[in-house]
Amino acid sequence: MEKGALSYEGKAKKIYQTDDPAFFWVEYLNQATALNGAKKDQIAGKGELNNQITGLIFDALKTAGIESHYVKQLSSTEQLIKKVAIIPLEVVVRNVAAGSFSRRLAIAEGTPLKFPIVEFYFKNDALDDPMITEDQIEVLEIATKAELAELKTLALAVNQALQKIFAVCGITLIDFKLEFGRQTDGTILLADEISPDTCRLWDTATQSHLDKDIYRRELGELVPVYQEVLDRLKESVACI
Ligand code: UDP
Fold first, then answer.
1. Region label for 142, one of left (φ > 0), alpha (ψ between -120 and 50) or beta (otherwise)
2. In whole angstroms, what is the distance from residue 171 CA to residue 131 CA?
3. Measured from the CB, is residue 176 less than 6 Å from ligand 1?
4. Strands (E), the chain
5. Mutate to test the pocket of ligand 1, among 13, 57, 92, 180 (most ligand atoms within 8 A of CB)
6. Over the stretch 107-129, which tens digit does the pLDDT of each residue have?
7. CA of 238 to the centre of ligand 1 (A)
8. pLDDT one-digit tens code per residue, 60-87
9. Any residues with CB less than 8 A from the CB of 145 and at least 6 apart, and which?
10. 193 lines ligand 1 (CB under 6 A)
11. CA 189 from chain center: how many Å?
12. Which of 178, 186, 132, 185 has the alpha carbon at shortest distance from 157?
């Protein structure tokens, strides 16, 4: 497989074409951003950690019966993925109140939710990724009713599988964001990344943050924390 022209550059990843139109070559960057890009820093080692963590999680999900666009690692910072047309939605699942949920609704962070909830946000930097209702998604033809039902089912299935994987290594899955894409035949596939950049992960014993809130809230060094998540996940996957 040959690396081709740059196809898309995001905040945390560069996506390149390959000599096979069915695949993309992804490079994970060291850039960290928060506040829709207003806070930005280069953090050596972050790209490598998120590439490895995402690969490990997508492999574990596959074992649990959930397919994704992930194919294989290409280098410490690069991975091969199947090409999909990304649906411009951020699908957020929450098990415990935190972040924007806690701020908007004045619910203390750490309050367990009676059941996992799914929220949709419209991926649009100019609009600052606003929350969007299912009716709005349908009327704007971002996704159909049937696709929305499938996104929810898949998101909740990912939640169940991830909660199990993280529980084995003493991590509580507070919330996370997923993205999905359409394959050429229209079927939906889990895509993007799953890493401490896109999940809230709390140490179950100490409640300490093992995720991007370290960077967002300036709580300490990010790399040793992401390394700890990777090390614990490796142990967890080995005993599942
Ligand atoms: N999230 C993400 N990308 C975004 C927004 C949120 O990966 O652009 C993740 C975030 O890391 C958290 C979950 O989605 O795990 C819920 O985020 P929330 O709505 O609480 O927003 P935040 O307060 O993190 O901005």
1. alpha
2. 27
3. yes
4. 3-9, 13-18, 23-28, 31-34, 39-42, 70-75, 78-82, 85-86, 89-96, 112-122, 171-182, 188-191, 199-203
5. 92
6. 999 999 999 999 999 999 999 99
7. 29
8. 999 999 999 999 999 999 999 999 999 9
9. 134, 138
10. no
11. 14
12. 178
For tokens 């790399």, what's the residue? 223
DSSP string, 182-238: E-TTS-EEEES--STTTEEEEETTT--B-STHHHHTT-S-HHHHHHHHHHHHHHHHH
142 residue type, one letter: I
In one letter, which amino acid is 198?
T
Q: Whose CA is nearest to atom 6 of ligand 1?
A: 177
Residue 240 has pLDDT above 80, yes or no: no
Tracing tokens 């084995």 back to the chain, one arrives at 168
Which residue has the CA at smallest separation from atom 5 of ligand 1? 177
Mean pLDDT of 183-188: 97
d(CA 97, CA 9) in angstroms, rounded, equals: 32
d(CA 30, CA 13): 9
